[in-house]
Amino acid sequence: MPGGSWRARGEGLLAAVAGAFTLAQLLLARPTMGLGWDEVVYVSQVGTEAPAAFFSAPRARGVSLLVWPVASWSSSTTLLRVYLAVLSGLALYLALRAWRGLFPPRVLAGAGALFATLWVTLFYGPQAMPNLWVAFGALLCVGCFLRARADRLDGRALWGVLAGAAVMAWMRPTDAVWIVLPLLVLAVAARHRGLGIALAAGLVAGGAEWVIEAFVSYGGLRERLNQASRIQGDLGWNLAVDDQVRSLVGSTLCRPCDGQMPHPVVYAWWFVLPLLAACALAIAVLAGRTTRTAVPLLCAATAAFPYLFMIGYAAPRFLLPAYALLAIPVADALLHLAKRPNGRWRPAAAAVIGVGLAGHLAVQYAVLDRTVERSTAGRQDWARSAAELHRLGVRPPCLLTGHEAIPVAYYTGCSSGATRGHNANTTTAEILRTTRSIPVGALTAPGGTPPRYARDWERHRLDGLEVRIAPAPGAGGRA
């Protein structure tokens, strides 16, 4: 396709999809929704609202750097969400644009629309979370990889490969390795030295900070990986396909994931997806363009593998990179099923696909609406608890420990502490010393058993929580 023709049609289509994606986030995902638990951890590293929360081994600092331009000077969650919505729309545009010349503009626009209308994509678009950005990096990296493989003189594509790999490693280094692994194998097999160097350089550029931090703060790379594995339930062979299906109903974290299966209408699309992917591969083989379809399918498979077969719980966001990579071949398959080789529509097939997509969109909207409603309510509970803690005299500087301490502490402006568990960062002795100088509270679920050191502290009820507040410094409490 001539470059001018692609620009005339493709740029406008992709820009329209990206713009609609940003607008849909602002309308449907509520920019006023407070920060979630994981968001609190990432934003607090660079924000001004509260001291930095404990940063556990699996996390990487890419999201913290992503939000720094806003969070470093403003405590407005709405402003942060608008910034992320606009940025994610731009990222979708650039990631799809990397595939120019590999697929027609209408296929890329359709792929963008399919991916952008998933409830999980819309929900996490304006959130300070890493998985969607891994997805954008994967699209950029794989698209540029295919272009560089086809044209060894395409230096810009090599830079795109490096940038995509760096973004993925910047956000989630282990995910980046899984996604890049097939590309490294293909680069070696094709003896394409430039691609191999670009992929390796991207992983190093994005993951270097995580590796350095492993030696500085976690006792080495191996120990950090071991800690990350323990926090995620000891990674190993573990069939989590059913967990992912259960999470499709809108569970942002399904751990433990032992609830009932949702209604089939909620997860039907999830089982249609691999069928359409297989159809896309068959179409590509018959058309003599196997590589450009097989490579994203292969990378999607490696991206999904650890979250389907190596982890004991589920979160829908884990599969965002796989969905992004599947979107382009699936959009290509749908277009081929709906149109004849001469370009005319197949009325029956087009009607079935249209009805199916309409139903799919309705389900995605219903799940998104319920998820946003539930998440907003939970974060409002934290905000009300923080307001009550302020009324009780727990104001910055202060320390909260116990149940949901990390998010409640952030909303209150306090530090958070834990003596055990995945977020352990202090000791009982240190907590008791802290009571001598600043307000300290121990949170529990209603009726929960407080830690031994807080059993004599005054108990108060919050919104869905209980807190025991240490006697004020100098009030005769135990030290």
UniProtKB/TrEMBL annotation:
Native source species: Streptomyces cyaneochromogenes
UniProt name for this protein: Glycosyltransferase RgtA/B/C/D-like domain-containing protein
Transmembrane parts of this sequence: 78-95, 107-124, 130-146, 199-221, 267-287, 294-314
Keywords recorded for this protein, A-Z: Membrane, Transmembrane, Transmembrane helix
Signal peptide: none
Presence of keyword Chloroplast: no
Keyword Electron transport attached: no
